[in-house]
Amino acid sequence: MADLEEGARVALRNVGVTAQEIADFERRVDTPTRGLLLYGSRARGDYLDHSDFDVLRLARGDFHTFKARRLSVSTYSGEQLRGASDTLFGTHLVRDGRVLFDPEGELAEALDQIVPATPNALLANVRRYSMILDLPTSELSGHLPGIVRLTRYLLRTAVYARAMLQGRPCFSVRELAIRFDDPALATLLASDTELLAPVSPALLDELTSRLVAIVGPLPHNRFGSLAATAIAVWDTDRNLAALAVRAGSEGEDDADSLDYSDLPKVLL
């Protein structure tokens, strides 16, 4: 366990993180915290009372993601953070992130080096990764929770990219639901599990049809299963393989699993 500097504790308390959540945080980390960045709805100010505090932690080593009650923490090194250039995650951090603690200026320096993503490149990647969803009905039903989660992740990215194409980047699904006059987006794409509809074939159909409407028909998956896809592309497209593995192994209601938004952020 690594003690958290008092400046970091104060910064977390000032944005509403409780003393118990901070104590839980400290019990989960083994290396010094070199920077803290708040992002997501708490940074934008459009949060709900039960919304998580999404925090990026800058450190050397000890790279894992965890939750401490409402506190959701992802740990990155400076090198990993600079690798978020040309990704939606990096664009989001630069646009909406709020630096809470940065005693040596390392976090600000890494953020300054992030190059924002281009919407057309994001949409091309979403279409490429959506090949995973072209599966037999038996495979879809056998891995329904993970595939629903993957489809939501891809659709959320596509919707964000669509907003960027309009010249008005936005990372709030509630705001985008209003902008696009599509109230269903606020729950279909929510990160808050309390707002999500139960997993079902009908939900997967709706998410998939919306994805196709933005990026076009799903590319053909000639491998026939998630496992076969991961094996076939492991040496040529590790990100695609990682998504296939995750879709086949995670349950939507597994409280200990990570959402796709918590994957290594270099994916999208």
Automatic annotation (TrEMBL):
InterPro entries: NT_sf. CDD domains: NT_KNTase_like (cd05403). This is Nucleotidyltransferase domain-containing protein. It comes from Plantactinospora alkalitolerans.
